[in-house]
Specification:
The strands form 5 sheets. Strands 14, 15, 16, 17 and 18 form a 5-stranded antiparallel sheet that branches. This protein has a 4-stranded antiparallel sheet with strand order 1-21-20-19, with no helix packed on it. Strands 2-3-4-5 form a 4-stranded antiparallel sheet, covered by helices on one side. It has a single domain, classed as Glycosyl hydrolase domain, family 43 (Tachylectin-2, Chain A), CATH 2.115.10. Helices cover 10% and strands 41% of the residues. A hairpin with a 6-residue loop joins strand 4 and strand 5. By secondary structure, it is mainly beta. The two termini are 37 Å apart.
Length: 332
């Protein structure tokens, strides 16, 4: 956290303490849990005139200040995509219900070191970080452009100690998912036993799933011989279906299928009775006549609903694709 932002937060805290200390009665709590507003808000502090998208939200960090990694072509003035990083933070007033969110590009030696390991001369998309409680390591999986196969999935693991530079094992090819076609945007189930990703191995892009063999650890599975994944049931269309992200029993993804608002839209599916439901469009509250891309679904135990971070090249942004935030309520 920068000195200026820390000073601002301390100033606000002191003002709150001063005024609340002058009251004879405690402030009334009208909202035990927060509510992420359903209006779409641009993450202004992260967006530029270039393309900024493919954000990852670290599930292990259930705090109001979250380090984030995303793809951008700002470093090359609109050329290749590299991984970069920043933070987002939000506040919610239990008395007033007021919600505020913002983001900023901040120096972080740990994330500098982590992203530099993955950045190459090609494009880097779809960062996905997760914690493996079976070995105590954090992993990052990235969709990396190769000369031979187009997009391939690569991964690395490291001790998640944020006070020092990471020593990353890798990145290595996640060979079990890769083919001679484009394979990208990995997501994993909560138990890390089922993988979801998209590939154009069948012609257009579809969403595929692959189960981890019993008694096989994660690294052994990722580095094993290419396997044949199954198309995700009920989700795919005859159009490009991409960027699956799974959180609990919900899957969100981007698709050009008919029935949307235009271009790529964000859709969701719910896992019920052992299968994924038919996809539902997020509607005009999220989607626009432009493109909405790579949705990421997040939670916070202090809030009633989910939040969604996605990218869009809609009008009114700073240019190209920008990053946006919105609260959503999904069906049970």
């Amino acid at each position: 956290m920068t000195v200026s932002r820390l000073f601002s937060l301390l100033t606000v805290l002191l003002v709150i303490i001063f005024f609340t200390g002058c009251r004879d009665e405690k402030l009334k709590i009208n909202y035990e849990l927060g509510i992420f507003p359903d209006s779409v808000m641009a993450l202004e502090g992260l967006n530029t005139q270039y393309d900024d998208y493919n954000m990852d939200i670290e599930a292990a960090r259930l705090t109001a200040v979250r380090p984030v990694v995303f793809s951008s072509n700002r470093q090359s003035s609109g050329g290749e995509f590299d991984l970069t990083h920043g933070v987002i933070w939000y506040t919610f007033g239990q008395t007033t219900g007021f919600f505020q969110i913002d983001g900023a590009m901040e120096e972080d030696g740990f994330l500098d070191g982590l992203t530099s390991v993955f950045n190459t001369d090609g494009d880097q998309f779809g960062p996905f970080r997760f914690f493996n409680n079976r070995n105590g390591l954090e992993y990052m999986v990235v969709s990396s452009q190769t000369a031979e196969n187009g997009l391939d999935l690569v991964y690395g693991s490291y001790i998640p100690v944020y006070s020092s530079l990471p020593v990353v094992e890798g990145p290595s090819a996640a060979t079990v998912f890769n083919s001679t076609f484009n394979d990208a945007y990995l997501s994993l189930s909560t138990t890390l036993d089922t993988a979801y990703f998209c590939s154009d191995r069948g012609g257009d892009f579809d969403i595929y799933m692959l189960n981890r063999p019993v008694m096989t650890d994660l690294d052994e599975w990722f580095a094993s011989s290419p396997a044949t994944p199954a198309p995700a049931d009920s989700v795919n269309s005859g159009y490009d279906d991409k960027c699956p992200f799974v959180r609990g029993r919900y899957m969100v993804f981007a698709s050009e299928m008919p029935g949307g608002q235009g271009g790529f839209d964000i859709w969701y599916s719910v896992f019920r009775d052992g299968k994924w439901s038919s996809p539902v469009n997020m509607g005009p509250g999220i989607n626009s006549a432009a493109n909405e891309y790579r949705p990421v679904l997040g939670t916070d135990l202090r809030f009633e609903n989910h939040f969604l971070i996605f990218s869009s090249d809609r009008s009114g942004g700073r240019g190209g694709y920008d990053l946006y935030f919105a609260g959503i309520t999904l069906p049970q």
